[in-house]
Design brief:
163 residues, single chain, mainly alpha, 7 helices
Amino acid sequence: MEGLTSAAGFSPLRSAAEGFRTLDLPNHLSLDGLISIVEMVRQKRIEIDVSESLTGATVCGLWLSTDSREIILHAPTPSALHRQQFILHELGHMVLRHDETVVSANYAESLFPNLSGEHVSRILGRSDFLDHIEAAAETLADLFAAAIRDSSTEPRSFERIFG
C-alpha cells in the first residue's frame, strides 16, 4: 500500500495519517466516542445497521451519505472485532471526505436513472480494494483501531493471566 499514490501525489498512509492527526483525538477513545467525534466533524448523525444483503465476501461495509445523516451498513458477523473494523473503515471514508472525490452526479444518474445522481455518486466510491481511496480508508481504520485498543481500560488476556 505504501507505494500507491493519489493524483495529488499523497500515499494512502500519508492521507490516513493526516486525517488521523486532524481529529486531535482524546487519550481515551472508544468506538462510540469516535462516532460522536465524526458526527461533529460531519455535522450529521451517523446511523449504523447490519445489512443481510452484504455477504462479506466482496463488500463488508457500505457508507451512504444523505443531506441529513450518514448511514453505515455492514455485513452480519458474530465477531465484535470484525464489526468494529467494518465501521472504522467507513468512518475513515467520512473523515477523509471521500464523498467529495467520487463520480460525477451526471455520470451516476446515467448508471442509475431511478435514483438521484448526487446520492448515487456518494456510494460509488468503490472499485478495487487496492486503489488509493480504499487503501487510505483501511489505513485510517487501522489507526483508529490502534487508538481504541491502546486506550482500553480493560487488561488484555495476556495481562490478566501474567500481570
